[in-house]
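Standup notes, protein team

Yesterday: finished cleaning the Noviherbaspirillum galbum set.
Today: UPF0434 protein G3574_05120 structure.
Blockers: none.

Input for UPF0434 protein G3574_05120:
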Amino acid sequence: MDARLLDILVCPICKSPLEYNKAAQELICNADKLAYPIRDGIPIMWADQARDLNAPPAAK
């Protein structure tokens, strides 16, 4: 993930800064408790694509 891109990206809902989780390939909004996926190096910044960090883990 390009550091310059991380400097300008914000949460589309609350406009808070995002934290990059390299292992999970996600951008985390701590304010809204959402994780936006990064697919093929492209951040997917749609609220309906974000993972709720408060949701229980999916059963396997």
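Follow-up from PR in the comments: The two ends are 29 Å apart (CA to CA).
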